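Encode chain A's predicted structure.
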Amino acid sequence: MKLADLLDNIEYECLQGSLECEIKSLVYDSRKAGDGCLFVCISGAVSDGHAYASEVAGKGAAAIVAEKDIDVPEGTAVIRVKDARYALAFLSAAWFGHPADRLKTIGITGTKGKTTTTYMVKSILENAGYKVGLIGTIEAVIGDRHIPAANTTPESYVIQQYFREMADAGCDAVVMEVSSQGLMLHRTQGFVFDFGIFTNIEPDHIGPNEHRDFDHYLACKALLLKQCRIGIVNRDDRHFDRIIEGHTCALETYGFSEEADLIASDPELVTGEGYLGISYHVKGLLDFPVRIDIPGRFSIYNSLTAIAICRHFQVSEEDMVRALENARVKGRIEMVKVSDNFTLMIDYAHNAMALSSLLTTLREYHPNRLVCLFGCGGNRSRDRRFEMGEVSGRLADFTIITSDNPRYEEPQSIIDDIRTGISRTDGKFIEIIDRKEAIAYAIHHGEPGDIIVLAGKGHEDYQEICGVKHPMDERVLIREILEEDASSGKKSGAEMNV
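Encoded structure for chain A:
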């Protein structure tokens, strides 16, 4: 491909070399540079690609895209742009042949609900006969391939690569999570989303390496409504007016508010043997009842969002209802059946806000006891440990403190910090460092009517200790515990209490 063709949709200045040179590959990692490549100098938090320009030229790069002055041989074309990350997104789209044009693209942003909503949308559309790709926090899904995710929203080059693979695999649509970081770093430029969804916003991801304050966080999130054709926004969010300010898309809303276009009404809690759920009625643009075997008010929002999107795909009410009844998301209020007498679930809640929301929701089901098992990651903010300990001590009837990803810290030191938080409350607790032993304790001491939450790990299938990720999937641990109990004749606490 000619350099000039790749640059077609970008504002640039050619400082030296020819635009007619042939480009053999597009790279933004100097280690992958080679003969005939186009190298994009990205200024990152850890390293600056401009520092490697001379090295890349020595490897035979045909051209280099840069924001700053670089010194390379005259034979290497140099393209100056205002923002290299922004340019990379458009270069990537061109390199892969603008694959988004062959797909219906759905981008979902918000503080909470992105992951669950993407899977609900995928479930509904596939139930209606569409072939759908997915990009998100847990994984990218292309046909039968499941690719573990490194970031919620990958770099623009990877997004376009996935789009191309999805289009080539016959996908009709792609639904993806769009993080504030992804929007801030222009990873979703180079195309326009057909649908942009804003679920909600609360203070999060604010810090030295993320957003300087809430205003900046909100502004980055709201960029999605300037990068889509149809925007679908939660009308109930208290920041609604700020979210939609300056939007350039056609706008639709959903929520409990009578001002919304798609309205949820008459919510009711649903309980059964070993599971929890919720039901409600959709009004406004559509009119039908919905039931989901995932608990909580936020499950209504997630499913209503999915309905608002899938309405544009002419999915029947019957297909929506059937798909939502069977929708499941790994590690997001994922119920694991171990007994008819109590409910056990796995959830990714790994900060105080998420844990408080989860436990408050489960309280509405009036359990005999609400039991919370969790740990905190090592080499991370100690404040998170104090806060999560205090939340669990205040909202759970009993807390089991255990290990999460200790990384390079001593597990007991992390547990000590969590205990400090719990000590600010009257909450009862026990400390069990080994996570499998802690889960076994929870199962063996479960009482009729209990809700037991294994929080923090969610979809993760590893435990990071001293730089090594050891295999550890809570679903596997639960299965092993039950198999060991069966072979030894040991009964769970629930069975002993019957």
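Residues 474-488 form the longest helix (15 residues).
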